[in-house]
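Collaboration report, partner site 2.

Our partner group contributed sequences for two proteins of shared interest, and the home lab folded both. The records are reproduced in the order in which they were received, starting with the first partner submission.
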Amino acid sequence: MTDPRQRRTGPQQPAGPEQSSGAERPVGSEPADGPEPASGVRRSGLRNPDKAVRGLGAGTMSLEALVLLLAIQPIRVVGGDLSGAAIGAIVALAVACVVLAGMMRRPWAWHAGTVLQGLLLLSGLLHWSLFVLGVIFALVWAYALHVRRVILG
C-alpha cells in the first residue's frame, strides 16, 4: 500500500473534461476564435486546395466535352434537322472543353471556361437543344466558380 500523504502530494492528473487545462480538445472541435490560424489565412481543410479546385474545373470541362459529343446522335434522331454547322460547333466546343480541362492550372483558363459557356448558349441559335445544354452547363460552371471562390478566397 502507498502512504496516503504521497497520494495527496503527487502530481495531479485530470479526471475528466471538467478538470482539463483546455490544451486538449476533442477531435473535430474548433477553438473559440474559429478555424483560422494565427496568420489570418483561411484554411479549407484540404491538403492542397489549389489542386482540388483545378480538379473540379478540369472534371467539369471533361464532363461537358463528353456530354456534347454523346449528344450529337440523340439530337439528330429525336430533334431532327441538325445541320452540319451545328455538328461542327458541337465538336469544336467539345475540343475546346478538352483543351481547357488540361489548362486549368492557368488563371485565364477559368475566364475562358466562362466564355465557353456563353458560346454554348449562343450555339442554341443553331438548335434549341444546344441552348438547353448551355443552360445546364452554365449552372454547373457557375457552381464550380462559386466553390473556387469559397475555397481559395
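Second partner submission, folded after the first:
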Amino acid sequence: MIDASILAGRRVLITGGAGGVGRAVAARMIAAGAHILITDRPEADLAGAAAELGRGAPLHAFAADLSTSAGIAALFGAVDEKLGGLDMLIACAGVGSGPLLEMDDAGWRYVLESNLASYVGCTRAAIERIRAAGIDHGMIVLVGSISVHIKAVGESVYNAAKGGVASFAETLRKELMPERIRLTLIEPGAIGSAMQPYSAEERSRFIEEFQMLPPAEVADAILYAATRPRGVDVVTLRIEPLHQKIY
C-alpha cells in the first residue's frame, strides 16, 4: 500500500526531469503535495515538461549540464533559492552509450560524467542540505540499471557507469544509516523512453509486447520506496519487463 500523503510539503529535486521516468515521478510527487524542482540538460524539453506538470502546482524547472561541477553548483544554487532547502533527491538523469571502440575520448568520458559523476556530485550536495535542515526523514533515490547484471555486448561504458552507481549506492547507504538518511537504488530494465534508439511508435510496440517498461511503472517503484515508513529501508528494487533482453 502506498500512502503518498507523507510526501506533502517535502522539497524534492528530480534530475532527468524532462525524461519519461523523471516526468512521471514528478507528476506523482506533485499530486502528493510535494514541492518540486526538476532539472535536465539544456537541450532537453524542460519547458515542455514544466508546462505539462505545472498548472498551478509548486513546481520549478532549471536547466543544467550535470556532467560538470559548474552545472551541479548552479543547480543547487537554484535548489537553495527556489526550494529553500532539500528533503529528497531523485536522480534519474542519464545518457545512452555505444560500444567503446565506436566512441571517441570525449564521448566515453561524457557518458561516465553524466551517468556516474553527476550522481556522486548531486548526492553529496543533497546530503549537505538534508544535514543543514536537521531533518530525520531525508532520502536519496538513485536510478541505476539492471544492465550491470546482464552485461550485454556493446554496453561496456554504460555498464561501467551504472555499476559505479550501484556500488556507490550500496556503500553510501551504510555510511548514512547513523544519520537516518535513507538511500534506495532502483534498477530498471529496458524503459520505453526517448533514451532508447527507437521511434515513439516502436517504443509503444515494445511496451505492448512486454519488452520494455512503461516509464510510469518505474515511477511507481520510486514512489513505493519514497513512501515507506521511516524505519523501513528499501535497499535495492529491481524491476524489468517480462521479456527483458539479456544479451
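Feedback sent to the partner group on the second submission included the following. The longest strand covers residues 182-188. The domain at 4-239 is CATH 3.40.50.720 (Rossmann fold).
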